[in-house]
Design a protein that fits this description.
The protein is of the alpha/beta class. It has eleven helices and six strands. The protein folds into two domains: about 60 residues; about 230 residues, no CATH class. The protein has a six-stranded mixed sheet, covered by helices on one side. Helix 3 packs across helix 4 and helix 9 packs parallel to helix 10. It starts with a helix and ends in a 7-residue tail after the last helix.
């Protein structure tokens, strides 16, 4: 084969190699473009109802923190806020279990309550199939700070006297300060003297942002059904009604600006004491109000 023929053959081989290399490069570009489009499509699908299944199947987590703050707050609200009151409850730790073994945010703190009292007093009860998702707060520290405000400020919480002080003591002070609305159910007149005063003085006292305190009295006081003359005599002698009514003077420990609503079997004596506490809260200056909190009220 002469040199001219060898040159022609070499050029053909070079063109063929260049063509194959171009085809390989084009194929790699096509595959990369396809993968990019598939990834973008997958990310768009996160906004559809199939979000949960896509998260499980996708190795790439959804960039939640890149969403605008307005969208993140909307997500927190849907996950953590309900129109119905929520039972704020923390189970006590068994004696053989150390506090270190407890999760940072126990899910048992937020439970939907059973019917808190019999008819005719009605209480809204959250639907069991629409629970909140407090586990969201454990995602990371930034989500915790953002979502905690929504959880505590935008819900109405129900407390039970049996464990209310323990429940509030398990919360960080910043969390307690965010609570704005509390409902308390008092089952019997004995609970007024036993646990009610301690809850207000040792628990709700530290809920500095509290705006409303709703008290539901389920049982009548022992002498509510006496005749007017008998009730008047009993009151003048320091009878049962005066004892239970005076227990409500403990409301002086509530944060200033908190309104009290009474429902259920409320006696006139209790209403008078609560009204007087509200009046003094409005007319006293800050110094006088703080001094009064440490003074024992006179029994009438």
């Amino acid at each position: 084969m002469d040199r001219h023929a060898q040159g022609i053959l070499g050029k053909r081989v070079q063109r063929a190699a260049t063509s194959d290399e171009s085809k390989g490069t084009s194929t790699r570009r096509t595959l990369k473009r396809t993968k990019t489009q598939a990834k973008q499509t997958q990310q768009m699908n996160y906004l559809t109802p199939e979000t949960s299944s896509l998260i499980e199947e996708s190795p790439t987590p959804f960039p939640f923190m890149r969403l605008p703050a307005e969208l993140r707050i909307n997500v927190y609200h849907k996950a953590l806020v309900r129109d119905e009151p929520l039972l704020l409850h923390a189970a006590r730790v068994p004696e053989n279990t150390s506090n270190e073994s407890l999760p940072a945010v126990p899910t048992s703190r937020w439970e939907f309550p059973p019917s808190p009292h019999p008819r005719p007093i009605r209480e809204r009860v959250a639907h069991p199939h629409d629970p909140i998702v407090p586990q969201l707060l454990r995602t990371n520290s930034l989500i915790y700070k953002e979502a905690r405000q929504i959880l505590y400020s935008d819900n109405i919480f129900i407390l039970h006297l049996t464990n209310s002080i323990h429940t509030l003591s398990t919360l960080h002070q910043r969390s307690r300060s965010l609570i704005k609305h509390v409902t308390l159910i008092i089952p019997s007149h004995h609970d007024i003297l036993d646990g009610f005063a301690d809850l207000v003085r040792l628990g709700l006292r530290y809920c500095w942002g509290l705006k409303s305190f709703r008290i539901i009295l389920q049982a009548s006081l022992p002498d509510d059904h006496r005749s007017p003359s008998t009730a008047s005599t009993s009151s003048s002698l320091g009878g049962a009604t005066s004892v239970y009514a005076n227990a409500f003077h403990i409301l002086r420990w509530l944060p200033r600006g908190c309104s009290v609503q009474l429902e259920g079997n409320v006696s006139d004596g209790v209403r008078r004491v609560v009204a007087e506490e509200g009046r003094l809260q409005n007319i006293l200056d800050d110094t006088s109000y703080l001094k009064r909190q440490h003074q024992m009220p006179e029994r009438h």
